[in-house]
Write a structure and sequence with these properties.
The complex is a heterodimer of chains A (193) and B (167). Chain A has 193 residues and is an all-alpha fold. Chain A contains 8 helices and no strands. The chains are: A mainly alpha (193), B mainly alpha (167).
């Protein structure tokens, strides 16, 4: 992220310096303004889902639900600790249901938890799965198409599902393979520091 | 699908009520976490959005699109989608606005719009997620997972354009 940021920031400002020096500051300010709007939108989504998930947590509903996925996440993410597994399970379930807003806080909690136990492998695997999308039904897109007068708004469901499956499977395989190669080159236990 | 969210809402609250959880207090406690969480995201968001604004304003974004269009075309991605494919990893709202524009311009059932919908629906905002997930943490060697996620997304985009041609 640091490299990407530096390259884009420097290149863009250099271009602006030459062609339109007076547009640099307004662009930065409008970007910052957009980020505040975005944060407000996100807060609304998180307020709904984190409020609700707190209730699920207090009533131990999440614990029951995640018991089902627990063996999978334990093996797959090489994770110990009930709370982390619970967060991972909830993140995956929310993603599958297409509740991206609800999924994010769980992922962040799980990643923070894994930071404490030093499970870098699990952190990055969870990131990769989330970053390649595992949504079963793209509700937003269907709504958008229906709104634009599509005859069969849902005929993109199957292609989306296939593409989502391909990208996630490919990324997970590539990552595990890369981690194996990297692990063989010196680092004895790549996932436990 | 419209029933999913109301059902979840009712089930969770009813279950909590049966278990004698203080619903209002619990809900507020969750929102308090949400407020803290949003505030912790704001600095990263501001930085990313500023970078994107600069990139757009400088004309580099358009330049990159023009440069990459032929390459994408060679792989079967229509040139109309180049910008969508490039924006998606950074900004969900930005790419959604652009998707909307494509649907309006080409018609919801056109090949271009269907391709765009599948690409949008089957990919995620990689850079944005990486910034949010790892905000404030010192995690080394993040470039590799990001590169893998981007590559996998790109492959699925190529596949999406192919599938939409057949189906």
């Amino acid at each position: 992220m640091n490299v990407v940021f530096t390259v884009i920031a420097l290149a863009s400002s250099a271009v602006l310096l030459i062609f339109a020096p007076d547009r640099l500051l307004p662009a930065l300010l409008s970007g910052a303004e957009d980020s505040v709007k975005m944060a407000l939108t996100l807060f609304c989504i998180y307020a709904v889902w984190m409020g609700l998930s707190k209730l699920a947590e207090l009533s131990r509903l999440t614990r029951g639900a995640s018991k089902l996925l627990m063996p999978v996440s334990e093996k797959f993410f090489r994770c110990d600790g009930e709370e982390i597994n619970e967060n991972i399970s909830m993140n995956l379930s929310c993603n599958l249901l297409g509740l991206g807003g609800a999924a994010t806080p769980y992922a962040v909690k799980a990643i923070n938890g894994m930071q404490k136990t030093g499970n870098a492998f699990g952190q990055k695997l969870l990131f990769i799965i989330n970053a390649t999308s595992i949504q079963l039904i793209p509700t937003t897109v269907i709504a958008l198409r229906a709104g634009a007068g599509s005859v069969k708004a849902s005929d993109i469901v199957l292609p989306s599902l296939i593409c989502t499956a391909i990208s996630t499977a490919l990324a997970v395989i590539l990552y595990i393979a890369a981690e194996k190669i990297g692990g063989a080159k010196g680092r004895k236990k790549p996932w436990r520091m | 699908m419209a029933y999913v969210i109301p059902v979840i809402f009712i089930v969770v609250i009813a279950f909590a009520a049966v278990k004698k959880v203080n619903i209002y207090d619990g809900f507020c406690a969750g929102i308090k976490e949400a407020a803290k969480f949003t505030m912790s995201l704001l600095p990263c968001l501001a930085a990313i959005f500023m970078m994107c604004a600069l990139f757009e304003e400088s004309g580099l974004a358009d330049g990159l699109c023009r440069l990459l269009s032929p390459v994408f075309g060679f792989l079967g991605i229509p040139p109309e989608l180049t910008k969508l494919v490039l924006i998606k990893p950074f900004s969900g709202s930005g790419s959604l606005a652009y998707l909307n524009e494509i649907i309006k311009n080409y018609g919801a059932d056109s090949y271009i719009a269907r391709c765009a919908c599948v690409c949008y629906g089957s990919s995620e905002t990689v850079f944005y997620i990486s910034a949010v997930y790892f905000a404030g943490l010192k995690v080394r060697r993040l470039a590799l997972p990001i590169a893998i996620a981007l590559f996998a997304t790109f492959v699925s985009t190529v596949v999406a354009c192919l599938i939409c041609k057949i189906m």
